[in-house]
Amino acid sequence: MPPKPELEIGTKSKNLQSSSKKPALPLEILEQVATHVNDLESEDGSWLVRQRGLWAMTLVSRTWYAAAITKLYHSPGIRGKNFQLFVRTLCPSINPHIRKTDLSTMIKVLNMSYLVHDGSKSLTSRILGRVKDGLEVFVAPQASFAVNCLAALSKCLHLWKLDLSFIAQTVSIRQLLNSTSKCSQLKWLSIKCDDGSPDDKNSPFPFFEWPPSLKTLVVSGPLSDETLIRFGVLPKSLTDLTFSQCPKISRIAVFWLLKDTSQLESLTIGRRTTNVDCAWLIDWLWALPKLRRLNFTLSDRDSIALMVHGALAKPPSDHPYPLQELNLDLIYFDNPWKGLDDDGLWDAIDEGHLSCLRRLVFTHRSGTRPPKAVTRYVRDLSDLLKALAREDGERATINEDEAGSFICKR
User: pTM of the prediction?
Assistant: First the structure.
């Protein structure tokens, strides 16, 4: 007997449904998709596109969730709007043993610099306590970081980068360094200093003890010469040193600190460090035989002519300066281009004592447009520097595309 029509139709529908099923994508492919989404950025460089894309992936299925969740929480973008949701997810209870989430171990980069009045100092300490097992990079918030956060910070043993440049209430440098003494992987440190806390001044130990593996140190704030001298001998591993917005320190104190840092490869004297001028730049250059990069903000007492004929004059020895990159900030000048088209800088590069220089950058403020003669001179300098980089061949640390002379507007 032929089968009934309704049974035949039902059988066809079942077979059609089973044949339309598509195989699930392997986890490896989904991880590649998550990596691609993680690299996405909007036109203005915002993190929002990346974070929304990874969040959408976690809603598809459990497999997609497993592929995207690690990258979503690797470096979460935290702002005022989503901060409370982030806190409820990460530490829903004051008691650290209640409802502990595995998401906290996925956080490697925690940037809280965009938070101003969100949260509290105790909440920052709680968050650090939750993410301590995996945290590698931490940027402190402006108003909700203080000395009571140092205990939790000391337990972040995998920390290699610590940025405290945004904090409003400075902490004792000695207490900070004692707290990070167990962070053996700490290589990048940015601190904001003042005239010195009573703990720093009254300590029986005159000098600070720095992390032994420190490579980059950024110092900012109104610290005095007394505090700077307490820095003592910086670690031999340090290769990059920056002073930014330090109006009180004198050039004598800076030179005292630099005299034992012959291993430095990069030095930055940033804005508002007005007591440090280029008249004694010659003292650094012979004291820092490995210096490859110099970023210098010329004060209103300086001039390009003074730097060319004074600080960059030929050294007493026959060996050229090791400088390969020189960045000059000219924001304090109404007419910063005076003396730039002098032949002194060209001769300094062409004759030998600045023969290692491959990149020269001038930064000026808006409204100080360079004249045509200066523009032509900088263009000629750029051709010379590119030619020197081309001659370096395989030995070049700055290739021909990166070499040259540039004028930038801030």
Answer: 0.85
